[in-house]
Amino acid sequence: MKKKPVKERIIETALIMFEKHGYHGVTVDQIVDECGTSKGGFYHNFRSKDELLYHIHDVFISYLLNKAKETYDKESDPVSRMCGIITSFTRIFDLYKPHITVFYQESTYLKGDFEKQINEKREEYRQLLQQIIREGQDNGDFRPEVPAQITTMAIMGMINWMYKWFKKEGELSIEDIARIFNDMMLHSLLTEEAMKAGKGDRFLLKTESVQ
């Protein structure tokens, strides 16, 4: 079997070790020993352990932000945009759960430009989602009495907490969970007129879909 590239091995090893021992509980020497490379190999790919932590954070946040922008451009209405973003947000826990777990456990150790760059991407994502909610309120799809800012934070908080409980081998698939989240938000946000018009029907649960 072909050996994985050094950078990939360093990241995979660091994810396991950071999650188990904490960021400050792991040294560069321990990482390179565990993954079978050298300090030269480490510093060829990362200038420091801080940059490695930044990369772990950045890889999934950049992916998430790009998916949100793609969804906004692809879909033409707020309901489809919101549900598409909720779906891609949920799916990321199937792709990057170790990265996200380390992020929530160790993000306080990001400093300087690394922290600034990550926070800017997180804020851009939040602003895009909030914009979609407001667009839905403006066109009559979403209830105006529910504040867009609180709705945005509720969506992000609901999905972010998956890092504590989602298991790939669990009873529900990631797609099942995304459908449940979309159904919950649509029943909370859609106006009576939008519901009668069938807005979001393709994102709502069917009685036989999830037990």
TrEMBL record:
Keywords of the record: DNA-binding, Repressor
Q: Which residues bind DNA?
A: 27-46
- Name one molecular function that GO assigns to this entry: DNA binding
Top-rank lineage group of the source organism: Bacteria
Pfam families, sorted: TetR_C_24, TetR_N
Annotated PANTHER family: ACREF/ENVCD OPERON REPRESSOR-RELATED, ACREF_ENVCD OPERON REPRESSOR-RELATED
Q: What is this protein called?
A: TetR family transcriptional regulator
